[in-house]
Amino acid sequence: MSDASQLEVWCAGENWCPITSTASVIGKKWHPVIIHRLLNDGPLGFNALQEEVDGISSKVLSDSLDDLEEKCLVDREVVNDKPVRVEYSLTELGHSLEPVITAMRDWGTEHLERPADGPAE
């Protein structure tokens, strides 16, 4: 990406381009959840983030963070050398997804039915 505040456009001129471009950024299963946790909890270390994203394996979290970092949505910062400690935070572009992630949460809250045998909140 040339400009960290812009997505690469591969379908310029098509009216569906903004939708597919956004989906390519957050369309993977865990990406919106990771972004949501970083929006809510601020910078987190790897283990803390894994605890917040219940059910994700270390490998999938690592791969997802690499992908989000490559897409300029997440920043990785080494905060300690010995032992190595890394924190992940959202970039400005990552923070700009807040209304999208909030809309996804709100839509799911309104339209998804809890299974009859599932836990009550």
Describe the structure.
The chain has 121 residues and is of the alpha+beta class. The protein has one domain (18-104): Winged helix-like DNA-binding domain superfamily/Winged helix DNA-binding domain (Arc Repressor Mutant, subunit A, Orthogonal Bundle), CATH 1.10.10.10. 49% of the residues lie in helices and 12% in strands. A hairpin with a 4-residue loop joins β2 (74-80) and β3. It is globular and about 50 Å long. This is Winged helix-turn-helix transcriptional regulator. It comes from Halospeciosus flavus.
Global structural class:
alpha+beta
**Tally of contiguous helical segments:** 6
- Helix share of residues? 40-55%
In what range is the share of β-strand residues?
5-15%
Overall mean confidence score, pLDDT:
86
Shape: globular
Low-confidence stretches: none
Number of strands: 3
Q: How many domains is the backbone divided into? A: 1
Short structural summary:
One of its GO terms (molecular function) is DNA binding. The protein has 121 residues and is of the alpha+beta class.
List keywords for this structure.
49% helix; 121 residues; 3-stranded antiparallel sheet; Arc Repressor Mutant, subunit A; alpha+beta; globular
